[in-house]
Amino acid sequence: MGAIEIKSERIEWEELLTFNTEKKVEFFSKNGRIFDVLISQQFDRALLDAFYNIANSIRKIAKQKGGMDWLQTLLSHKRAMLYFIQPSTRTFLSFMNACHILGIKLSEVRDPSTSSEVKGETPEDTIRTFSSYVDVIIMRHPQEGFAERAAWVLNNSDRPVPIVNAGSGKDQHPTQALLDIYTLQRSFEATGGIDGKSIAMVGDLARGRTVRSLSYLLGNFSDVKIYYVAPPQFKMKDDIKLFLDKKNISYYECDDLESVLPVVDAVYMTRIQDEHDVNGESKNVDFNKYHLHERHLKSLKESAIIMHPLPRRNEIDVRIDNDHRAMYWRQERNGMWIRAALLIKLFGLEDVITSY
């Protein structure tokens, strides 16, 4: 990555909280390059296109044993910490295998009861400890905003290493949004890409960090239309809609899934986020109206795709799995490639990949 610029002045946490998004993006960059990966607003169109090209190059190189062997030499001198103290299957394995592809050595903590946090160590001191041993910290944490706080701690230290947010409470999940955009880009490669497409996001939108992060990234494309389909009590929050207004992105809100199926190019299904219930808010909601059934397939365009960040419960009928429009299993695999691309970008090796 080259020499890391150390901040000459300490930025207090309370001051950082007053920063607007643009200033935060600057703080979490180094030498004009992305350094910490924390929020979807850090990714502009040029960066998304770069990730797309890097990921495609990596997956082509990896098709042959010689290519895979070469990839595993690129970052064999680097070490990563997977700090996942919130349940995860896909994101954890996706990052783990992205690291394997690039030869990165791994450490992991998945249960804070096995760390010194049970002795009263603060999470901030835990992060400082990790930074002593590794070159990047990839973390999933139940507390909203903690990834930003971890990055603030290290950026004000004498050993700043990148923090990658792999899911932060019900706030954001930027690398999930990256793989979602990558899936959309690959799916619509033959029809002009994402520009001009209509995308429905369905389910518990108020508490779904994946749909929030994806909405931010869609602000980088032109003539996109978003259909938010949700129960009234779980509709998309106003901060996302204000963002889309500023980006001149058209969005529509309704609670009738069947009415939007014939007009959209992608349906992004989500599950009930009832782990965030405080007083049983989900119990009296008829979520069946927001499930995709086999009978709905006849309403969808033949060229449309169906996505889901997984895990699912029953919001997509399993009989849909083998339909050519079901993209969620490919979407899952795409996560490994795009996260490998992200690590290549963080460590400044994109030119090495594209010139292979």
Structural description of this entry:
This protein has 2 domains: 13-173 and 335-354, Aspartate/ornithine carbamoyltransferase (Rossmann fold, 3-Layer(aba) Sandwich), CATH 3.40.50.1370; 174-333, Aspartate/ornithine carbamoyltransferase (Rossmann fold), CATH 3.40.50. 37% of the residues lie in helices and 14% in strands. It has helices at 13-17, 21-27, 45-61, 65-74, 90-102, 123-131, 146-155, 174-187, 209-218, 238-246, 257-260, 328-346, 350-354, and strands spanning 29-30, 33-34, 79-84, 105-109, 136-141, 163-168, 198-202, 225-229, 250-254, 266-269, 305-307. Strands 9-8-7-10-11 form a 5-stranded parallel beta sheet, covered by helices on one side. A 4-stranded parallel beta sheet has the order 4-3-5-6, with helices on both faces. It has a two-stranded antiparallel sheet with strand order 1-2. A hairpin with a 2-residue loop joins β1 and β2 (33-34). α3 packs across α12. The longest helix has 19 residues, at 328-346. The two termini are 19 Å apart. Mean pLDDT is 91; it is low at 1-8.
